[in-house]
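Recall the central idea of this unit: under ordinary conditions, the amino acid sequence of a chain determines the structure it adopts. In this exercise we apply that idea directly, starting from the sequence alone.
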Amino acid sequence: MHFNDKYFEPIYQRLLPVLKQLERQRQMIQGRRKWLWPAGMALLALFVVFVVLPLHLEDTKAADYQQRIGYLIIGLLLAMGGGMLIRNLLLRQFVLIPLSKFHEDFKEKIIRKLLGYVNPAFDYLPQAHISYEQFIQSGLFARREYEIDGNDLVTGRIGHLGFLVCDLMVTWFPEWISKKEPGDVVFYGSYFIMELPRFFSSPIYVISRSENDGRVFSGGAADTGFIEAWNLGSQVMAMDKSFNEHFVVYARDTAEARQLLDNRLLNRIAALKRDSQTSLYIAFHTNKLYVGINNLQDAFEFSYQYPIDNKQLLGAYYYNFVTHLELAQELRENISIWTPNVFSRS
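Accordingly, the structure predicted from this sequence is:
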């Protein structure tokens, strides 16, 4: 599915009038930002001309001359400080506050409607994200005192199966470093959780390999111990050799892993990695599916420096979101892995 396909085009056309309205607001705010520095410099120049320069320097006494020089320096410092203060006040009033309101309007008028067109029953909470416990329950990451931050939580159902997805940034600060220093980024990207009609007897994990040397690729996580591969079970080789080149599968129950990872599901996982062009963390744990796309991106965000009525930008939002749902839909429809004897805890 591509951003300009037959499914997305009608959605874009419906949102286009609001996008153009918001784009005019963005241009107005950007225009104000460009004039703030000249305005601040103009105020500084007026202060110097009408306040500082009247302190004339033509005098005969050296002490008086030095005193006037001191007054001049003090006046210039006050002028610079006053100019910066006024500029910052103008920046806050005419740029920062409007930008914050603009960001809220974009989430409510564009993103909420975009998700509503996918399914009006989905619930969207722009400032919410999953908890530490929800993140750690997959069993993929070692239990540590992580800092969890994120936004854009979407919840809903696909058929009778509930799901949630959000943008997430997980950081770990070792005890020997200050919180003012940058911590180790454990995960930064999109995190998806879905209920499944099956309780797995043991977890099954699928993790991307490095394209360079074949090791487990985890954005540095494996090297620093955030993913304890030794604790995930034995490696399981899928029937698809090309899949094994890009992913490693861990499970304690190898027979159950091979039953789950049929060719249709393998192809869907491979397509998800190919489309996202980044590392994936996938876990089938208890009765849930966990999918982490570690793409170092915050979805549904934009740069104020560029137009927001860009079709490709909105299409990327749409495509990235429905990609999660396609994997979930593939699992839901894959009857061969949901046989009657696995619909209860095994």
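Residues 229 and 248 are 10 Å apart (CA to CA).
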